[in-house]
């Protein structure tokens, strides 16, 4: 029998779904990886489990003693709260007050303590508050820091990348991912393109990697020497565009950055819901970017 011993054992090994009907004239095959089928419905389930597993292995987290503290925009916090509840850790999460009420309710239901920070300070305010709480807790507090934690891209080198390679039978030509922390786009690209630092042999060095960020906050585009489009400031795509260029993001692996406006991301999200896929707006942004790339003449038959 295939039976999981505990909820966290269900993380990963998600299927692919054919979304080619969204591409005009079926110019290219578009596949979506269904991370929504994980226990807490996002790719961050992998990250939460990976960071806690690594911290426990390294002796940084001690059940019944340690307190998890983390700054989050939502989904990483949900994943951490889920694993913390399963393993008996107290969990304190800081997040901007702009995050949805639904996310806050889910965190509270999982037993986490939620501390909101002013919307003007975006993720920087949440990080500062997390460090403040960490100091107050003394030696009991442990901050995993998703933006710099090497376990972040590692879990995607070890699981997400291999799953995509296996399920596409090596035929993947283009990989499109949103950038919140940068762990997914970095880890998957390292696995498929190859990375000597982590002993990843090149499976397909010519893989074309596309990062997605909000048009209203084009920090990755700027970091790569590109030009910003339109007014810059707050956006409505929760889950990507954290207001910084994450340390774990390896921008040398990126071949292109596609910026999607919040309103366009919301329109695609609505379209996905009409297809029976109740996704979040960050998924809408990623699918919109992927459709744009797939619609180009040069991607025909990809």
TrEMBL record:
- Where would you find the membrane-spanning parts of this chain? none
| This protein's record includes keyword Calcium | no
**Could you name the domain of life of the organism this protein comes from?**
Eukaryota
Q: What Gene Ontology molecular function terms does this protein carry?
A: transferase activity
Q: Which GO terms describe its biological process?
A: cysteine biosynthetic process from serine
Cofactors needed by this protein, per the record, are: pyridoxal 5'-phosphate
Its keywords, alphabetically, are:
Amino-acid biosynthesis, Cysteine biosynthesis, Pyridoxal phosphate, Transferase
Q: Does the keyword Amino-acid biosynthesis apply?
A: yes
All residue ranges annotated as the Tryptophan synthase beta chain-like PALP domain in the record: 8-296
Q: Which family, according to the similarity comment?
A: Belongs to the cysteine synthase/cystathionine beta-synthase family.
What's the protein here called?
Tryptophan synthase beta chain-like PALP domain-containing protein
């Amino acid at each position: 029998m295939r039976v999981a011993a505990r909820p966290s054992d269900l993380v990963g090994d998600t299927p692919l779904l054919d979304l080619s009907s969204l591409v005009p004239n079926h110019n290219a095959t578009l596949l979506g990886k269904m991370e929504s089928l994980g226990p807490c419905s996002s790719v961050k389930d992998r990250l939460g489990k990976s960071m806690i597993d690594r911290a426990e292995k390294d002796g940084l987290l001690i059940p019944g003693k340690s307190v998890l503290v983390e700054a989050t925009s939502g989904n990483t916090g949900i994943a951490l709260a889920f694993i913390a509840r399963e393993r008996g850790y107290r969990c304190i999460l800081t997040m901007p007050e702009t995050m949805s009420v639904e996310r806050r309710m889910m965190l509270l239901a999982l037993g986490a303590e939620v501390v909101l920070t002013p919307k003007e300070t975006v993720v920087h305010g949440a990080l500062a508050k997390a460090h403040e709480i960490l100091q107050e807790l003394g030696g009991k507090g442990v901050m995993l820091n998703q933006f710099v934690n090497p376990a972040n891209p590692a879990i995607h080198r070890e699981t997400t990348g291999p799953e995509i390679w296996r399920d596409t039978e090596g035929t993947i030509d283009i990989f499109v991912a949103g950038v919140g922390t940068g762990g997914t786009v970095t880890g998957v690209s390292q696995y498929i393109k190859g990375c000597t630092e982590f002993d990843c042999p090149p499976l397909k060095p010519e893989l074309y990697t596309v990062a997605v960020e909000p048009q209203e906050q084009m920090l990755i585009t700027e970091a790569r020497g590109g030009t910003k489009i339109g007014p810059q400031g707050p956006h409505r795509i929760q889950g990507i565009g954290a207001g910084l260029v994450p340390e774990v993001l390896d921008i040398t692996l990126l071949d292109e950055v596609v910026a999607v406006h919040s309103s366009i991301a919301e329109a695609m999200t609505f379209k996905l819901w009409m297809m029976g896929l109740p996704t979040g707006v960050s998924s809408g942004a990623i699918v919109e970017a992927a459709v744009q790339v797939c619609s180009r003449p040069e991607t025909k038959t990809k």
